[in-house]
Design a protein that fits this description.
29% of the residues lie in helices and 33% in strands. By secondary structure, it is α/β, with parallel strands linked by helices. Strands 3-2-1-4-5-11-10 form a seven-stranded mixed β-sheet, with helices on both faces. Strands 6-7-8-9 form a four-stranded antiparallel β-sheet. Strand 2, helix 5 and strand 3 form a beta-alpha-beta unit. The structure holds S-adenosylmethionine. S-adenosylmethionine (SAM) binds next to loops.
Length: 243
């Protein structure tokens, strides 16, 4: 049995998350450029880029940007896009084939906390930091744990084209676990699981600092609004210390 994240991020991902599309990514990149004061000269890496939707928004704005992901099914979609073809690399997030040359590293839409052992999540974070040049920025966009704890939808059922999608969610200790069943028009069922580590702001701040990041700050949205208990996202930004 392979790891949950190998099964979950395949051909069904776009059916499960249709709202995570090119136009939302374009809007988010526009907002992040403003919040982070990016000039257009930065070299950017999007770790866990999926279909390359943020990457293509960056390349469209003439950034020298690259993306990496483990899922060949999602990277195939990225490689079909003229803007991102040739700018994507199939790689595991704990072991990336780059040097410390990036001005900005993105890890967007809950692409962190996948490993069951905290030491492995830390290894992923350290790898992201290792690829930044001194003074570079890490931007990690994760679920806001406070908001999820208050507003978790325990169960729902939706029709997505020919697919009926049933989702059951629970929080167990530090993790949110989602059991997904997709039933096709002919009645065959596919089951997937998502299992993501949740973090409080203090905890992620400590992890950032331990990994060599300073000036750690939080936002509650891509627009740069403050992190509050009821914001859906927890966007953490840290600056790599100069050696
Ligand atoms: C929630 S998706 C987000 C994708 C993209 N950032 C977006 O906003 O559309 C998480 C991504 O992480 C990738 N991923 C999961 N485990 C990984 C691993 N161990 N190494 C590298 N990428 C991984 C998945 O293939 C998937 O594309």
């Amino acid at each position: 049995m392979s790891e949950w994240y190998i099964q979950a991020f395949g051909e069904f991902y776009p059916i499960l998350y249709p709202h995570r599309d090119d136009s939302s990514a374009d809007r988010e990149i526009k907002q992040l450029i403003k919040v982070l004061n990016l000039t257009g000269d930065e070299q950017i890496l999007d770790i866990c880029c999926g279909t390359g939707r943020h990457l293509s928004a960056l390349v469209a704005r003439s950034f020298n940007a690259w993306g990496t992901d483990l899922s060949m099914a999602l990277l195939k979609k990225a490689s079909n896009h003229p803007a991102t073809a040739g700018r994507i690399i199939n790689a595991e997030m704990r072991s990336l084939p780059f040097k410390s040359c990036f001005d900005v590293v993105f890890n967007l839409f809950t692409s962190f906390g996948y490993f069951l052992e905290d030491s492995q999540n830390m290894a992923a974070l350290k790898e992201m930091v290792a690829l930044l040049r001194p003074g570079g920025l890490l931007v990690l966009d994760h679920i806001n744990r406070y908001n999820l704890q208050r507003n978790l939808i325990k169960e729902n059922q939706q029709q997505r084209g020919e697919w009926e999608v049933l989702q059951k969610r629970r929080i167990e200790k530090n993790r949110v676990i989602k059991e997904i069943t997709l039933i096709s028009g002919d009645g065959s069922a596919t089951c997937l699981t998502e299992n993501v580590r949740l973090f409080y702001p203090d905890e992620i701040k400590r992890l950032f600092q331990t990994s060599g990041l300073k000036d750690v700050r939080f936002f509650g949205s891509f627009k740069g609004t403050p992190l509050k208990k009821n914001t859906e996202r927890m966007i953490t930004v840290g600056t790599k210390e100069k050696e």
